[in-house]
Design brief:
Elements: E1 4-6, E2 30-32, H1 38-53, E3 63-69, H2 74-87, E4 104-109, H3 120-129, H4 149-152, H5 162-168, E5 172-180, H6 184-187, H7 201-206, H8 217-223, E6 232-236, H9 262-272, E7 277-280, H10 283-292, E8 296-300, H11 320-331, E9 338-344, H12 346-352, H13 356-376, E10 382-388, E11 391-392, E12 394-396, E13 409-413, E14 419-421, E15 423-428, E16 457-460, E17 466-467, E18 471-476, E19 485-488, H14 491-500
Parallel strand pairs: 3-9, 3-10, 4-19, 5-6, 5-9, 6-8, 7-8, 15-16
Antiparallel strand pairs: 1-2, 4-18, 10-18, 11-17, 12-15, 13-14
Helix pairs in contact: 1-14, 2-13, 8-9, 10-11, 11-13, 12-13
Amino acid sequence: MYTALVLAGVFAIATTNSYHPDEPGSVRGTVRRDELSASFWQEHAQATVKRRSGTKTGPAARNVILFLGDGMSVPTLAAARTLLGQRRGYSGEEAELSFETFPTSGLSKTYCVNAQVADSACSATAYLCGVKANQGTLGVSASVPRSNCSASLEPAARLQSIAAWALADGRDAGIVTNTRVTHASPAAAYARAANRNWENDARVRADGADPQKCPDIATQLITENPGRQFKVILGGGRREFLPSHVVDEEGSKGTRTDGRNLIEEWRSDKIERKVIHSYVWNREQLLSANATMPEYLLGLFESSHLQYNMLTNPTTEPSLAELTEVAIRMLQRNDKGFFLFVEGGRIDHAHHGNNAEMALDETIELSAAVSRAAELLDETDSLLVVTADHAHVMSFNGYAARGSNILGTSRATDRHGVPYMTLSYTNGPGFRAHVERKRVDITKEENYGSVEWKSHVDVPLLSETHGGDDVAVFARGPQHALFSGLYEQNAIPHLMAYAACIGPGEHVCKH
């Protein structure tokens, strides 16, 4: 019989993150004691693999790419495909995102060990390391409370990601994101941290922890395995790698207080290892690297996150599809294969701001990146998996006619005769105070329909919250059928590892 443990007290929290509050959900709760261990979730995932694989044989995957649409809920998919179709001049609803054509689709459950609604750290730990964890923690088991440095140093609590499994097999690995490369989603591929906010040494110290004992996430990427082994690292976040007295190429200061320049340390490491390498910070340099193909590539294109696609300068900042293509071309030189993580991370940020159009556009950008990968890689030996870490609270509602502008109002009005949007949010910064107990007519606002206009919401918050819905999973390539049905999110890396014959547990190669 399983016993229960009432988690005592509130876990320590760090300074506020503008998109992800430190306590977006409950940090109290009753959980089974065994759920605090990594082995519980590993065994549960392996049972899922065994149940789904049975005695089947078949081809193994040489290459694996996990595409992650951060916050890409099912309503986001439906609305994004409609917008895509309408941009092409059709009614829209019949359109398909590139990965919606994949032969297998399923659903994953996204809750964390201590929360009904996941954040991007505990969910990343699940889909990259195969173990469910506590909110706000990366690469460690649920035995680690948030911000508890000493607990995160316990060997049994420290996890390996599927990127590390691939490297151990002699394959190459890399990460691509349009957020900071130290942000929660990509960080779970290489870091172990008791707090997702520990992206630089100053943030570790601000929590009362010692960065000498618990190195910040940027330091782990550059100086520790598996991060220092990644052949390609592309995204944003220059500030996390530079000391506070250094100004980067675009005029922004670093955030480090230890005086270390981790970009230079990355270069020094590659020089010492006598490998061809390149650091790039703009699109022109990226395309040049794409032509010369160094052995190692570090690209940091913004001080923080990359710009939203609808607000960016495409001549200076690369698209997610371009980043993905460069990464694939670099990694596919290894005859044994590779693992690549690609994140469309700004879907999440747009939703947090109630910016529906930008969230859908970022989803379309992810679709373009998946399409590019599908063109470059053979379906017979490359497994592509597309999923989300968690949902959001945008609803697709009302009774608008077929072909109605997905970014417009519903056909109906509320009981006071005031129009409402087809896409709206249950909470967030887009709240408008009622006047005489009636909603205001948002269609009369001066900036109505502009790119950064905020859809209306019910509950006023500074930032919209995640949702607890199941999220979709799409798969194409060797063993794609494993990803059908409903399963725990932490089964995803184990299913990919089974198909690729890497990491612990069952493998198709053993049948």
